[in-house]
Design a protein that fits this description.
With about 425 residues, this protein is an alpha/beta fold. The protein contains 20 helices and 5 strands. It is globular.
Length: about 425
């Protein structure tokens, strides 16, 4: 693969693909990029964009691997390509591949703070906590940043020293950090102060972090309320009784619920069974839900559009989900867990396309769950969690010295199926 100047037609289509992605139309962008690469297979920038789109927007790690392998074939020492390949390995549960890839990257670029940070994430996922701490500390020594401090805090086992807290405070006051680094820094400070028993001061830091998060993301509670109302109106007993079919697969187990409800604990319990494999928070059902809506259709047509699916379409969507998730299943067990909490929105879809799947609904006291989510700097999604609305005074009282976050004592409960 060379870097010859692509033909004018390919360049024009490439710009069109970028515009489609900017307009939040990733499927259209992907279709255009396929046309670009058919016209100009050596168009490196287009292939890079396509690989990134497949992984981050279209949730197609297998496709992303295919594209990055083509790039690596002609430029095997490219640090960016090797980093991307390691990231994909981590996404599909190939932790040894991810660790090996990141280890090679930091060995070739030891002064790259971002590489050490990503290596730390891989070590954490693989359960190598002490090495993850060392990698995060190395990243901080190269470039102090909020994400690295939060990564240490999110290990849950880190005990911050007074020197750590002072360093975070200095960084917050004088670091000149961009907003995406300042937000996690405040969450990390909150965790550190909470660990010292300074609950009121910790709440202030969480509040600052959440305020910055709200500025970064758009969320309208009314939109979600309307979605729930449409689902309740559609998914009735007669609705399902009139619609048979779907994919007959019995292997998926969906663990759903609010974030911080205890879904990870429930997943770990289930995955301890010899016939059940734990995977991750898979984005694939969300992708299938988008597929169920006509291309270019209004998001507000979901879930109502599901009523138009015939038996063959329902079976096809279920089979598509099973095919998409096969790449995550590395142990050959009879059942696997999809622990994406937000799938609670799609339980009706699951019943339609995978009627034999199990659904485990994990619930926790809403006050405990809400406060726990407010204290968490989520990597992606969960944008509803960054505001307390009318509950702020109550939660602030719980964070005073005599309250000491006491509502976190309420643990998870699980029911088998919604």
């Amino acid at each position: 693969m060379n870097t010859d100047t692509p033909p004018a037609a390919a360049l024009a289509l490439f710009r069109e693909a970028q515009s489609a992605l900017a307009a939040s139309e990733p499927v259209a962008s992907g279709e255009i990029l396929r046309r670009v690469l058919a016209l100009a297979p050596n168009f490196v920038a287009a292939r890079q964009h396509y690989a990134s789109l497949l992984l981050h927007n279209l949730n197609d790690p297998a496709g992303a691997i295919e594209q990055i392998e083509l790039l690596l074939r002609t430029d095997p020492d490219n640090t960016g390509y090797r980093t991307f390949r390691a990231a994909v390995a981590g996404r599909i549960g190939d932790y040894e591949g991810a660790l090996s890839g990141y280890a090679q990257v930091v060995a070739s670029a030891p002064g790259d703070a971002g590489a050490w940070l990503r290596y730390g994430h891989a070590l954490k996922t693989a359960g190598r906590a002490d090495e993850a701490v060392a990698a995060y500390r190395k990243s901080l020594s190269l470039r102090p940043g909020g994400e690295a401090w939060w990564s240490l805090a999110d290990l849950k086992t880190t005990r911050f020293t007074s020197g750590d807290i002072a360093a975070m405070r200095r960084l917050a006051q004088h670091g000149g950090l961009p907003i995406h680094e300042r937000a996690p820094l405040h969450f990390a400070l909150g965790k550190a102060l909470e660990g010292q028993g300074a609950c009121a001061a910790a709440f202030l830091q969480y509040d600052l972090g959440n305020t910055l998060k709200r500025a970064m993301h758009k969320y309208d509670a009314a939109d979600f309320t309307a979605l729930v109302a449409r689902a309740r109106a559609l998914f009735t007993v007669p609705f399902f009784a009139e619609r048979g079919g779907g994919c007959e697969a019995t292997d998926p187990i969906f663990v759903v619920g609010l974030p911080r409800s205890g879904s990870t604990l429930v997943e770990q319990i289930l995955a301890s069974h010899s016939a059940i494999e734990g995977t991750a928070e898979l984005p694939d059902l969300i992708a299938v839900a988008r597929r169920a809506v006509a291309p270019g259709g209004d998001a507000r047509s979901y879930p109502s559009a599901l009523a138009q699916l015939d038996a063959e379409q329902r079976r096809g969507l279920g089979e598509h989900y099973i095919a998409r998730t096969r790449i995550y299943r590395r142990q050959g067990r009879a059942f696997f867990i999809d622990k994406m909490p937000e799938n609670f929105v799609h339980t009706g879809l699951i019943q339609l396309i995978l009627p034999n799947a199990r659904i485990v609904d994990v619930r926790r006291h809403p006050l405990a769950c809400g406060l726990s989510a407010f204290k968490q700097n989520f990597a992606v999604g969960q944008v509803f969690s960054y505001a307390l609305a009318g509950h702020r005074p109550l939660l602030r009282r719980l964070c005073e010295p005599d309250g000491a976050f006491r509502c976190r004592a309420a643990g998870p409960r699980a029911s088998r199926r919604l």
